[in-house]
Amino acid sequence: MQLFPTRTAAHLSIAAISVAGVGLVAREPAIVGWGGAMLLAMALARAVTLVSVSRIRAAGFEMLWSGPRRVVRTGRGSTIEIEAEVRNRDTLAARYVRLRPIASSQLQITIEPSAGEVMASGRLKVKVSVHAPRVGQHGVHGLALEVHGAPGLFEVPLTFANPFGVEVLPRPFAAWLPSPRGGRSKLLASSGRPGRARGEGSDLRELREHMPGDPFRRIAWKASARRGVLLVREFEREERDVVWVVLDASVELWAGPLGRAPLDLAIDEAASICTRYLSRGDRVGLAVYASTVRAFVPPDQGPAHGQKLAHLLVTATGTHDASRSDLDEADVAVRVLEHLRPLDVRGLSDLRRGDLDRLASRADAVRPRAPFAPPSPEGRSPRERMLRRYLAAYGIESPPRGEAERHESGFMLAEVLAQIVKSKPKPSVVHVVAPAPSEVAQEKPVMDALRRLARHSASITWSMPQFDPGLLPPWDPPTRADGSPSEEVADGARRATWEEAAGVAAEAVLVRTRVAVSRSEAVLRRLGVRVTKIRATTTKRPDAADPKAT
């Protein structure tokens, strides 16, 4: 158990040492005795605090979440309230000066009341407000209570390890999944609203230029003679669409403040497309790729399929895999060790330092108690996979890799589109939510795949991610590994200098990004691809000056 002196205790200790020093210099035993008595009193106060807090812990000081559920669902950008209860089974009241959450850094949490007193043999209701600016499976690992002992001169942090899961869905799915589908709504959903697609039918859709593979019976000879260009008739028929949504989840798209990164907005855009077509009764498939194919789900329809797509948008874009994470095996082991210690019966006291095999085995034994049950992430060894799976199961964040993977993802997009062309049923609508190919070598295979889709009468729409929201103020100041402010923003003058430099750098990146996006849009439009921009709907950031924020 660790004890920390309060400011009053620190001032008294400094005063006692000063008094004793003055007495030694003046050779006055009374003054030296006075200073020594003050130091002895501080030692006694520390012992009394240690005894009183040990008594509280032995009596059964605990924290419990209210309600039977250990996982809640919410939409990105929303705020939910979770109720907790702190119980004091001792016959003495316990006063705490601070209550803070131990949770994923992807969540922004406020606790009320943040300070107070738990009555003897009483209970204290605590409201935990969780703001979720980013999709994913995040964990609230417990609460840390800083308790004052009987003299009030020392603080003791008490940690309550009680994992709780928060699954953050994309905004459109958070609204679509709970909507009613029974009774009349179910009948309407089953009948759907058929769309008009290219194919053999009686309704003329358009006259277009002849392309290789078009049958001769569709050639409009009179119109071709008038215009001097070989034209064909494009008919349409009534049927449900077969829609594919293709999402680029490269790790560099996570760069930016929480809720304002390009991938934050791209996931919402992909979810919006999925829910729009699912509501019409169309079949929707999903492909998530980066340097490899992260998910490939054939088209289907219905609420159960919508649940599956929402889950994949949450999990397939994560960064727990070794190829997408900035943590190596040693870093993962440190995080597992810190989280597992309060959950283990023996507090890992019997675990030798550096014994990663035994740590992985112990973590895998505790994993069934976790709020989530993810598949095993990618790792370089079975031991590393077990450790990474522990992080994912308890919602412990894994920062994205610093190296970009756009070089590999550009070629992977061509492979995904080629696979969609070969899939059955044939796609009628393809939505690509991704940056355009960034290299000349990537453009040819991607454009060839787009041409093949067009020859199969598929309508192609390309949504470009938004980079502007992540480069506009306010910017998150740099921090150290422990979360404390960096030396660059240690004081007001340095903070002002850093903000000025950050503004100049952000403006330079914005100009370069806009030029690259404009060039990419021009290339896609020349191929007849409809290009749209993702609507920049970002989450509101809580006020950093709020005294209730923790």
Automatic annotation (TrEMBL):
Pfam families (UniProt xref): DUF58
InterPro entries per record: DUF58 (IPR002881)
Keyword Transmembrane belongs to the record: yes
Ranges where the DUF58 domain occurs: 206-335
Presence of keyword Transmembrane: yes
Membrane-spanning parts: 9-26, 32-53
Keywords (A to Z) from UniProt: Membrane, Transmembrane, Transmembrane helix
PANTHER family: SLR1927 PROTEIN, SLR1927 PROTEIN-RELATED
Protein name in the entry: DUF58 domain-containing protein
Organism, as annotated: Polyangium fumosum
